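User: Predict the structure for this protein chain, please.
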Amino acid sequence: MAEVAEEKVGENLEEKVKELEARISELQSKVEEYLDQWRRTAADFANYRKRVEKEQAEQTKYANANLITKLLPILDDFERAFQTIPSHLTKLTWLDGIFLIHRKFQYILEQEGLKPIKTEGQFFDPFYHEAIAYEETDHYEDGQIIGEIQKGYMLHDRVLRPALVKVARKKPAPQPQAPEEEKKVMEEESHAGEDSGD
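Assistant: Here is the predicted structure, written as structure tokens:
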């Protein structure tokens, strides 16, 4: 009887050990699952934080775009005024002061990332330029910019205002008249001469 009792205790212990091993295995798989979820969540959060930081940097970089756009007409006015100054006034000291104010204004805008769009000698690019006039000419290549009406500006790597430009177009080559058209012209001229002779 003692042997039977020992056997039962041994079987109970084996069952308990198997149950505990199964429970440990189940808990280990849950631990791995939770750890994997935690890693994914941590990676998602790190990506989210990087994205938010990038968006904030972009927002800060272009935060002054609206204000700078409103200041561009003042810059245009300065440049138009300087183009119309009579030569006898260029020696006046107060005019030098206005030139300095203009330069400081430009410098501040440049520090914020503003730079003019190049047009001289460039070919028309609808991303940077807006064509407001075309001129037929043989002196420039087709599509080449031949005049700047209003300066365009970039703010860092974005177009803030496209340049308004005049673009060259090749003159169309004169079309040679077809032999039939020449005959018609000659006949019309000869009929006109006959009619006037009557």
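Helices lie at 2-61, 65-83, 93-111, 179-197.
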